[in-house]
Design brief:
single chain, 18-stranded mixed β-sheet
Amino acid sequence: MSEAIRQPTMRSRVRALLAVGALAAAPTLLAPATAQAGTGGRRTVAAGETWVVTGTTRLDLLVVEEGAQLTAPDGYIITLTVNGVETGSALDGTYGVTTLIAPGTYRGDVVLTPAVEHLVTFAGYTFHLRQAVYVGSAGVVAENSVLSAVRGGRLTDAYARDVGLVSEAQAFNGFFVADGADYALEDLRVAFDGNGRCDFASYGAAVTGAGEGTRLVVDGARIDTRGVVRSALIARDGANVVVKNSRIRARNGVLPDDYVPAGGANMLTVPWRLGLTGDIRATNVIGTNTRATYVNSAISSEQWGVLSTDSVSNSRLTTVNSSVTITGDSGYGTYADGKTQQDLFLGTDFDVATWVAISTGSPVVFGDSTAEAVAALNEELELGLGEGELAAIEARPCTLTSRGFGVMWHSGDGGSVDISGGTRFSTAETMFLDKAVQMAVTVDGSQGAELHAGNGVLVQIMETDNPGSIDGVYTEPTGDPDRDDSFDTSAEHTADATASFTGIALQGDFYNAMRTGKNLVLSFAGSSVEGVISASASAHAVSTITSAEWAQLSHVTNTARPAINNGVIVQLGAGSVWTVTGTSYLTKLVLDADAEVRAPDGTTVGLTVDGTATALETGATYTGALTLTVG
């Protein structure tokens, strides 16, 4: 992704120098540019006529007939506001890269602003952005801004306070802070209603912080967007964005009738292969060395996703004492792109429809917002929280609630989830779902962490049901897989799926339904587990899945059966107890001298190894085709 601000010769930076409070260095208070033709007046742009607007122009009435065109000089782009509301702009097509003024009658305080066009390139497309306020290293850049869209408040080179932005048209940006700027948005109010175009390019986002050295602090904001990929906030390309005490809400838009689902720059909807629907992700972290942190804030999206990381490298996403909500019937809380350094959530409440988290190879961490942890983040991430702010952050655990699943791994390798403190994790469906990639789960329940899976399945390993393409079809395999004699089902491999549990009481089942070589390795220390742990065969409710049946993805049932290429290794450490509730097929069982395998009250558990009845003894290790039964 790249961006450029074109700098033609026509430049006019109009500023009014006013004193601001008792600041040591008073910022500059900015005003819109002087109108080219004065105030008032009427103008009709007739059919077939082209009006090149060469300077900011104010009218009482503007009529744009069908077939008329309003343009700006080369290197500029035109924006229309009426009574301070951005309006009239429409994309030049479903896959457009710029906007045009739509035909219509515009009455009131009509302002036409030709601003320097802001070019952002992504995936072969160059988009022509417009924004209410562009902030560079020296402050607000008036010639790149549409200042007539700034409603009330105070706009300076150092901060904006009590400013309102309203857009009822398409692909208009709010604040774009870049070029190493250090800027603050205080008590910002944004109401955007209309489609965006490409959130990878920040095209239509309410707030963007971009570029190495850029620091943007958003405090007390209320941001509300509605529209296809009309993102509320984007951090990208090395910026450090800190959001605190804010409320962010993003809602779906209306897709163009001729839209065909696509990827890259034309991705206007969530890929259905994730088992999701929707056309808005509220926030995104993009690019290299980018950081976005949310403190004491509420972020919601109607569908698709709330906190996304995408196309990143070595970037960070963090929340402290915040809420993450999907208000509709489909969507994830956070998406950890494969090259994210870490997604970290302390004292945060998740209430989502489908997935709490999706990982493609990056670490996701849930824990308590202790004073020590928050203070360390304040230094590490350069959050700039003062002593009073730190003291006001109450230590609390994460609460993770999903009306669907917990965490999914679906591509990439090396993704991990770490759960500690008093985190309470509840799902309606399977908690940890791994689709044929290497993953690791670590749960420390010594401080009260709890896991509850509504369908009774805590861990599910399965072959991917992602058909791989937009037009792809998933077909359920039939019959038994061929045994791979070179794969050792009783050994641990670097590509295996692993899960370790310490100091926790668990109820639920663990299944490895892989057909190709991958083992499930489970370790328990000072923990109890009650359920089935077994190799299995999994099946969807339907034998084929297309985009029309996207909701069937990830939903499988299991039949416990002996392992073929899907070993299950269980290590019961000191103080651990496994209560076997049904027939379980393992390939290796390691029992500490202080560990126990038992059956529910009134029943007994039996073990066979390669078909031979074998006594269960503490301190023993069993390898082979292990079958545990309850009688």
